[in-house]
Amino acid sequence: MGQLTITRRVCLCPTTSLRLPTPHHFARSFSITQKVMGPTKRPAEEGDRSISPPPLKRKAQTAISKSAVASFFTPVSQKPKDRTTWTEKSPDADSPATLLVAKYVPEGSPTNDESVNTTVKRRKIAAFDLDSTLITSASGKKHSHDAADWKWWHHSVPDRLRKLYNEEGYQVIIFTNQGGLTLHASPSSSSSSSKPKTPKAQLDRVPQFKQKCSAVLSQLDIPTTLYAATGKDIYRKPRPGMWLEMKADYNLFNDDDIDLENSIFVGDAGGRQSELPPNSNGRIKATATPKDFSCSDRNLAHNVGIQYQTPEEFFLGEEPRNFTRDFDLVKYPYPSSPTTTDPDSSSSSSSSKKEEILFTKTSPQELVLFVGPPGAGKSTFYWRHLKPLGFERVNQDVLKSKDKCLKAATEYLKEGDSVVVDNTNPDPDTRKQWVELAKKQGVPVRCVWFRTPLVVCEHNDAVRALNKPLNPESRTSLPKLAFNSFNSRFKEPKVKEGFQDVTEVDFKFRGTKEEYEIWGKYWI
């Protein structure tokens, strides 16, 4: 009976009707009784201090402010008005908008127009990247999964920015690349379909991003502007487009309107290399600090002529780490003319008059085959060195197919003209068709090999695509795949392929000083 009583106490699950216990119930109750009535631990003897005390609960440090938590639980009807104004901008009149601009004006401040056009201009700019510089994800993931998934990168960030604005006279600006955002759906390639090519999930990221940025700016609560580049155009860091828009928005047009010496850009993309910090007493193996994903933030600061620091240097006072650039402009300075020691040889007029001779015609009629990756400088070389010698040009970017190139070259040769094949021609199989054409037409075939490093080619391609004065054929920028594809197929050209000679051209900037002002910035 005692065991039955215990069973009733254990089996507290609700039932719809009262049933008498069955043998099955007694079997279960016996099992349960064995567990309940098992041996217990002996009581600790008095004075026994071998038992550890319970662990102390420590309050975890967090960068999430109390106001953020309060705002999250506040009903929408009771939340203050959003002080952030959003606009969109295009790189030119013929392109869609790719730049998101958020202007925040605290309550009680002048209106947007008045704050921008104020007669008292702040000459010092403190510009910051957004992700991994001012904020990071609260979830610990690489990318925020929703608008609320963020926290300050370090708890000192908001107070430091407020001090810059309120006490040190800086204008605080935010520049961020947001390539994962699409402002407007791409039109469908099919005329019969009205559905956009851009996935809906990608379009949904824009309102989430706006909501997150509005919360960040609201907590910061100082007059500021955030610029978010969503395309691979002039706005994307390290390109200067966002900086130029900021200058226009704040009426900073004159050379002395900005104190460049005391202005600064802070961002995590500094080209830092992975390093092993010193071990702790030599006993614990140190963990390597990760390598930066790019050098775009450091390069933007270089392009606009201001100081650069990483978040660790600016907010935490850490010492700078070593950094490298895949493409370093230091290796490609503006050259003086190699044919003269005239003090004015660096001027555009002098360099154009005394052009370096890199190619000479050796026969009345020739077929010249260019070999080199996209952006190696092949077309520029033609215009400056071979066109003046009377060569006609065949280019697949213009004619759109190899067959059309072969047909055009054949017609030029039949008319007695010399021809340049201005294509990449990476491998012997591709070059063989042109060697056979030259033999068939009875003209010598020569090769000019452009030994331009791939990273310089990518730089040249970006310079050409983003600057109309240097893009007479209005070419668009190429994907990285185009450069990697050439590299995978490339075989060094040899005289034994049938060439009369192979002229090697190493890259160095050849152009006017005005052109170098554009070329001599970081574009990738």
From TrEMBL:
Molecular-function GO terms, alphabetical: ATP-dependent polydeoxyribonucleotide 5'-hydroxyl-kinase activity; polynucleotide 3'-phosphatase activity
UniProt-annotated stretches for the region Disordered: 37-60, 184-205, 334-356
Mention any one GO cellular component term assigned to this protein in its UniProt record.
nucleus
- Identify the InterPro entries for this entry: HAD-like_sf, HAD-SF_hydro_IIIA, HAD_sf, P-loop_NTPase, PNK3P, Polynucleotide_phosphatase
Comp. bias intervals (Low complexity): 186-200, 337-351
Keywords assigned by UniProt? Kinase, Transferase
> Gene3D superfamilies of this UniProt entry?
HAD superfamily/HAD-like (3.40.50.1000), P-loop containing nucleotide triphosphate hydrolases (3.40.50.300)
Q: Which GO terms describe its biological process?
A: base-excision repair; DNA repair; single strand break repair
Q: Does the keyword Kinase apply?
A: yes
> What PANTHER family does this protein's entry cite?
BIFUNCTIONAL POLYNUCLEOTIDE PHOSPHATASE/KINASE, BIFUNCTIONAL POLYNUCLEOTIDE PHOSPHATASE_KINASE
State the NCBIfam families in the record.
DNA-3'-Pase, HAD-SF-IIIA
Q: What is this protein called?
A: DNA kinase/phosphatase Pnk1
Which organism does this sequence originate in? Neurospora crassa (strain ATCC 24698 / 74-OR23-1A / CBS 708.71 / DSM 1257 / FGSC 987)
